[in-house]
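Input (structure):
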């Protein structure tokens, strides 16, 4: 296993570097990628770093720091090979480490994606689910080096605006392929890795998660209490919030008697990237940020996506059409892959959504406000659970956002008429 110390002075950030670039992100680091990933012979080329820039930033990434690097390998014979990469450095906070997010993502790029893409190849389709991984390092710093999808023509949608119907259908088409192939592989071969078999949340994370809920739930209740006509929703949520951690455990738990697929686990806008036709219509989408996959009901990904990532009008007026579109895609793909079980019909998908409705509330009050938030220098995990004034102010900024209020006022009514708030 390669360690950061083999590249440079591990875990050090150069304080006088105006771009705040880690010292180990140097020519030697990229030389190893050209040799190991591109099969260039060492000592036959020179590495030239064109650019390395931090990207994302506060409010865009909560568990990692990203660096976009463009690097050349200039060979002795005059040939030049350019490498456009994204270097993802994981947050070293203990609460992040305990959830195993780096291990899950490393397994995703090294085993999961190659396996399921090959399964699609086996039935005659070329399907790509994410960027290629060129290098992983585990040690003082955990990091992954992957394709810079932006250099390949992919970009994220506007998280505050949300996506329209055409974008949503492109995404649901790809997600249905992901669910279909992982469901088929699961039924034939079992879990692709044991780390994916422990649910969306685990008992080990109870203390952190309950502190998070303790910090954010009162803010939602205060909002509802301040709006005329919303008192009944506050009363329902007060009941809902009792034993919330255990209810979420139950709502997201795998049920092997039903339909099980691998959920991506974090399908908000910043975790998928679109490519476009010349007409500016979305052409393809790739999933990124594989830190949280888990086996469970695929409707959990659907609820997460629709509530957090689509336009307000689309999620409230065409929710059922989106679900129907997804089910049709899922069924078609399961048939192509010779899924060895019963294929869920539309009625069964809607029953699953109702069964897992408590998770929809989680998406509405703890994920959507973060998606819609303005950029904030205090946007980090401590901002959600910390007691410092800057942490409390961050939470107030997130929940006092007029854009979130616009969504909350409408979506909570939609979830209520579907019975999602009736979890005493």
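Output (sequence):
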């Amino acid at each position: 296993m390669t360690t950061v110390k083999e590249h440079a002075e591990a875990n050090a950030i150069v304080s006088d570097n105006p771009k705040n670039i880690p010292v180990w992100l140097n020519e030697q680091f990229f030389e190893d990628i050209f040799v190991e990933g591109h099969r260039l012979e060492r000592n036959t080329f020179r590495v030239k770093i064109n650019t390395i820039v931090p990207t994302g930033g506060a409010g865009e990434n909560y568990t990692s720091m990203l660096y976009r690097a463009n690097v050349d390998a200039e060979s002795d014979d005059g040939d030049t090979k350019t490498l456009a990469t994204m270097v993802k450095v994981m947050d070293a906070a203990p609460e992040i480490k305990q959830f195993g997010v780096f291990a899950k993502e490393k397994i995703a790029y090294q085993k999961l994606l190659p396996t399921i893409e090959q399964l699609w190849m086996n039935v005659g389709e070329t399907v790509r689910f994410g960027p290629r991984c060129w290098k992983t390092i585990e040690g003082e710093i955990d990091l992954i080096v992957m394709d810079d999808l932006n250099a390949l023509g992919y970009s994220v949608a506007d998280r505050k605006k949300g996506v329209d119907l055409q974008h949503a259908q492109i995404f649901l088409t790809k997600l249905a392929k992901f669910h279909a192939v992982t469901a088929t592989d699961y039924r034939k071969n079992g879990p692709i890795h044991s780390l994916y078999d422990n649910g969306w949340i685990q008992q080990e994370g109870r203390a952190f998660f309950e502190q998070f809920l303790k910090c954010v739930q009162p803010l939602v209740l205060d909002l509802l209490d301040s709006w005329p006509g919303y008192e009944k929703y506050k009363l329902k949520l007060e009941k809902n919030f009792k034993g919330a951690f255990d209810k979420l455990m139950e709502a997201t738990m795998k049920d092997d008697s039903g339909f099980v697929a691998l959920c991506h686990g974090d399908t908000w806008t910043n975790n998928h990237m679109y490519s476009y036709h010349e007409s500016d219509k979305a052409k393809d989408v790739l999933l990124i940020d594989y830190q949280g996959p888990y086996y469970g009901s695929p409707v959990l990904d659907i609820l997460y996506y629709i509530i957090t990532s689509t336009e307000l009008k689309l999620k409230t007026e065409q929710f059922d059409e989106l679900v129907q579109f997804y089910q049709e895609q899922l069924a078609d793909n399961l048939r192509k892959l010779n899924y060895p079980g019963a294929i869920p019909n539309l009625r069964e998908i809607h029953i699953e959504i109702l069964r897992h409705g408590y998770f929809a509330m989680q998406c509405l009050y703890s994920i959507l406000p973060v998606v819609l938030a303005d950029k904030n220098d205090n946007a980090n995990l401590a901002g959600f659970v910390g007691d410092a004034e800057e942490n409390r102010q961050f939470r107030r900024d997130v929940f006092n956002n007029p854009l979130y209020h616009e969504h909350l006022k409408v979506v909570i009514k939609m979830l209520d008429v579907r019975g999602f708030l009736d979890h005493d």
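Notes: Residues 383 and 392 are 7 Å apart (CA to CA). The radius of gyration is 22 Å.
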